[in-house]
Amino acid sequence: MLLAACWLLITWLLGSFPTGVVVGVLYADVDITAQGSGNIGATNMNRVLGRGYGAATLFLDLLKGFLPVLLAPLVLPQAGLLYAGLVGLAAFAGHCWSPLLDFRGGKGVATSAGVMLALAPWATFLAAVIWILVVLATRKSSLGALVAVALLPVLTALFAPAATWVAVVLGLGVVLRHADNLRRLRAGTEG
């Protein structure tokens, strides 16, 4: 049980690694928190520093959710999906409320996608396709993310029903982290 608790803590700490900040400072000498939207995620990295930086941030943030969940059954095999889901939530919480950034952080889309990719790959793939289609149609990444996380629990219920609760909790978390975007979308001022 101690190992399981330690893995949750390690996952939270790994999740709290501010990928966008580190990539921006190390490779472009840019503090991403002071540029664009100020968000540390892939969308702001893409807008401020370009596609390569955005893709690197997306990939690394996705790994923060994927790898710990993938390894969770090795840490506590008898707990099954419950423990894997808690590990995923720890990664999400670390990313969104990083102690390395005074408990600020990203919006959790890529990290949530990593978690769900490990738990429900087909549902996550379809949600990613939906996100891409919405972004292409509207040019609004936040809207794409919100539509995808709204549909992810339904898709998860179809392809991996036992993981639906994780999709619901992560979806609520992503919506919470997008509160400002929702206000701007309602007002018609979202970039």
Salient structural properties:
single chain; 191 residues; mainly alpha; globular
Kindly describe this structure:
This protein has 191 residues and is mainly α. It has one domain. Helices cover 75% and strands 0% of the residues. The chain has helices at 2-15, 19-28, 42-49, 51-75, 81-96, 109-119, 121-138, 141-159, 164-177, 179-187. Helix 1 packs parallel to helix 5 (81-96) and helix 3 (42-49) packs antiparallel against helix 4. The mean pLDDT is 95.
Number of helices: 10
The number of domains: 1
SS-based class:
mainly alpha
SSE run: HHHHHHHHHH
Mean pLDDT: 95
Beta percentage is: under 5%
Uncertain spans, ≥5 residues at pLDDT below 50?
Answer: none
Oligomeric form: single chain
N- and C-termini, Cα separation:
46 Å
- The level of helicity is over 70%
Rg over CA atoms, rounded to whole Å, is 16 Å
Summarize the entry for a quick read.
The chain starts with a helix and ends with a helix. It is an all-alpha fold and 191 residues long.
Topology record:
Layout: H1 2-15, H2 19-28, H3 42-49, H4 51-75, H5 81-96, H6 109-119, H7 121-138, H8 141-159, H9 164-177, H10 179-187
Helix pairs in contact: 1-4, 1-5, 2-4, 3-4, 4-5, 4-6, 5-6, 5-9, 6-7, 7-8, 8-9
